[in-house]
Design goal:
This protein has a domain at 83-132 and 206-248: YebC, transcriptional regulation domain (Alpha-Beta Plaits, 2-Layer Sandwich). The protein is 47% helix and 23% strand. It has helices at 3-21, 23-39, 47-58, 63-74, 106-119, 149-158, 180-189, 212-227, 242-248; strands spanning 83-90, 96-103, 123-124, 134-143, 161-166, 170-175, 196-203, 207-208, 231-236, 238-239. It has a 4-stranded antiparallel sheet. The chain has a 4-stranded antiparallel sheet with strand order 5-6-4-7, with helices on both faces.
Amino acid sequence: MAGHSHWANIQHKKARIDAKRGKVWTKVSRLITQAAKTGGGDPDANASLRLAMEKARSANMPKDTIERSIKKGTGELASEAFEEIAYEGYGPGGVAVLCNILTDNRNRTAPEIKKIFERAGGNLGTSNCVAWMFTQKGVFVIPADGVTEEKLMEVALEAGADDVESSEEIFEVTCSPAAFADLKSALEAAEIKCDSADLSMIPNTTVRIAELDSARKILNLMETLDEHDDVQSVSANFDIPDEIVAQVS
């Protein structure tokens, strides 16, 4: 299975813990505010805001918190000024890593991200040093115990999905950004529950990592970046065999 799917599976397992900590709320709140600032506070006319609000509901964020975040974006309430930045670099084994950041202080965030890379045995690179290795796609993570593979394949491919991958606990459905809304509607109409639905950066090619120590360092790097308050998403092009992932876990 591709590197993104490995990371999606790990995130699936830790999502409930993160939600309890409230870390997801902090990140999604920023995302809502930024989306409202950029495209306005009406989700019907702002696809980015609509997607951010769906993430918030999936994380069980209270309605008043969502509304407050929107008002911060539209200027009805005071808010920090957030900046969107992509940080790129390499992890152990030459794995390409791409982080999407939303920060209110670039001078604080940049050295923190740089230190995370260096501690993992990697290094932060220059703009576009790895971004060209990734393509944006719609990604749906679906619990494997909620639908049969046959039904999911039928619904997803008919609605424009590019691929359906399976692992022990999840299915991962990918599509082009243009097909995202139609595919999401089709899954909802078929009552297929998604743990997450998002536009993500998927690697065009992968780097196979079969050495346990390197795999552990890469996954630790991904976890540490993902836990940083300013990191909205992190993608990488590693391909780690399932048996190695199991040993690391």
